[in-house]
Amino acid sequence: MLRDRFGRVHDYLRISVTDRCNLRCMYCMPEEGMAFADSAELLTYDEIEEVVSVAAELGIRKLRITGGEPLVRPGLDGLIRRLASIPGIRDIALTTNGLLLGRAAASLKAAGLNRVNISLDTLDPARFRLIARNGELKRVLESIEAAADAGLTPIKLNCVLLRGINEDEIPAFLRLAYERPLHIRFIEYMPIGHDDENWKNHYLPLGRVLEVAEAEGYRLFPIRERTASGPSDDYGLEGGAGSLGLIHPVSDQFCRRCNRLRLTADGHLKPCLYWVDELNVRPAIGDREALKAVFGRAVDIKPENHEMAAKLFGGAQSHKPTERRMSQIGG
């Protein structure tokens, strides 16, 4: 098993297949000036399959395909089909902005994809253009229906809360979770690859969601123990069809139950989303024992926690934060 120095067992690998995206969401990348990897710099699907095959031997059971926007890379259903056939892999999920999911949902399900997370930061079309700087909300909403029709459930909707921009939509998202069998996950804005004043000005702790829920008359109850792996604190809504999740890495970090490693599109294994540390897997491709050693080294160097809150308040940090943007790591 991939057990680190702090007793955390890692059974979950997030795989970025591209750093490119058809949106420019304000919390993920700048509107202009991003330098993207050439196709030759990306891991091939053959290489990804080899890495996952070795990871499965070490106890990896769950995969998540990410980007950038993973659906901008051609042939993704073929990769998923190959990964689903690897012994030991039990669950494959996809994180997507939803613009291209509608026409791909059925083929992805047939290939072996189990479920999807869809980014949805607003329910207002004009505000969607403000936050995403491109695209149409209508296509994302259509993709949610297509995912449901294809059986890619449970469907999780990821909403990054931004102070002064979409916090007034908390009641609308609560109502959506109450009326529909959807899992709405509110996520704190993280300083990944940047810690500028824009982040500090728009950061909003998720305690605000619980305050609004109480004011709106919703009765929440926890539906998962906090000791479970995964970053989300989950709540049901009494009488409601869906549920809520709170992912608050800044105000209440989830590091103590972290069970994941990340493989970037350009072939680096990251033990932690926030810190700069990463290991290049490319030199080990073709040598299974060497790949196992890279995974072993990754869990050996994984720190106990990140220190995003220290960055918010200007405190000292024990490690060097990454300079990669979220889209370059894998959201």
UniProtKB/TrEMBL annotation:
Pathway per the UniProt entry: Cofactor biosynthesis; molybdopterin biosynthesis
Cofactor(s) essential for the protein: [4Fe-4S] cluster
InterPro entries: Aldolase_TIM (IPR013785), Elp3/MiaA/NifB-like_rSAM (IPR006638), MoaA (IPR013483), MoaA-like (IPR040064), MoaA_NifB_PqqE_Fe-S-bd_CS (IPR000385), MoaA_twitch (IPR010505), MoCo_biosynth_MoaA/MoaC (IPR050105), rSAM (IPR007197)
Enzyme class: lyase
Cofactor note: Binds 2 [4Fe-4S] clusters. Binds 1 [4Fe-4S] cluster coordinated with 3 cysteines and an exchangeable S-adenosyl-L-methionine and 1 [4Fe-4S] cluster coordinated with 3 cysteines and the GTP-derived substrate.
Protein name per Swiss-Prot or TrEMBL: GTP 3',8-cyclase
Subunit structure of this chain's protein: Monomer and homodimer.
Cited Pfam families: Mob_synth_C (PF06463), Radical_SAM (PF04055)
KW Metal-binding (keyword) present: yes
Residues the entry annotates as binding [4Fe-4S] cluster 2: C255, C258, C272
SUPFAM superfamilies: Radical SAM enzymes
Chain residues that bind S-adenosyl-L-methionine: Y27, G68, S119, M190
CDD domains: Radical_SAM, Twitch_MoaA
Enzyme Commission number(s): 4.1.99.22
PANTHER family: MOLYBDENUM COFACTOR BIOSYNTHESIS PROTEIN 1, MOLYBDOPTERIN COFACTOR SYNTHESIS PROTEIN A
Binding site for GTP: R14, R64, T95, K156, R260, L261, R262
Superkingdom of origin organism: Bacteria
Residues binding [4Fe-4S] cluster 1, per UniProt: C21, C25, C28
